[in-house]
Amino acid sequence: MTKYFEDAGFEPGDEDIHFHYKAESPTAACQDGRETIITLRCDVKEDKRGTIDLPPKCPDGTCDGCTFHFLWRSQHACPVCREEDYDVIVSECIAGEQTIHYYPKKHCMIINDEKPTTKKKKCSSIPFAIEIGSMCALSVGLLLLCLVFYCWKKNKK
Fold it and tell me: Cα separations (Å) of 141 from 79, 135, 153?
């Protein structure tokens, strides 16, 4: 079926959906009957109705008068975006807040804004390991200071 599609001048797409209709009854012009191939192609930029393209090599929709080709570009041919279909980009931590951006891939459609395009999250500018390390260093420093003060007080007499 894709051979007919390419012969008509269309570029094949990985996500295309082909509907093939065949009328077996012969006619004077078509001994094997007539065929119609409607190909749905995902295009998220199209409006609700989409656009129907005729083959570039056959502007009447048919090259032989028996096989008709139509390419219907529509957002309804796109799969619905799932969790794994988003590219997630996490920004830096600025003033204790981090912005997470969700970008859908080109081949899927967002339904009813199921995923926000941006989300804010609280964060710390200092990594957790550095926070723990600095707390430990501060505690050891205070302990040593207390020990020095204790030794000074004891040896003062």
Answer: 60, 10, 18
Q: In the chain, count of helices (H) and strands (E)?
A: 2, 7
Query: In this predicted model, what pLDDT tens digit does every residue of 70-115 receive, in sequence order?
Result: 889 888 888 888 878 888 888 888 888 889 998 877 777 777 766 6
Question: How does pLDDT run across 9-44, given as a tens digit for each residue?
Answer: 677 677 788 898 999 888 888 888 898 989 898 888
Please answer whether residues 61 and 70 qualify as being in contact, where contact means their C-beta atoms are separated by less than 8 angstroms.
Answer: yes
Assign 3-class secondary structure to 3-19. HHHHHCCCCCCCCCEEE
Domains within the chain, CATH numbers bracketed = 1-77 (2.70.130.10), 79-126 (2.10.70)
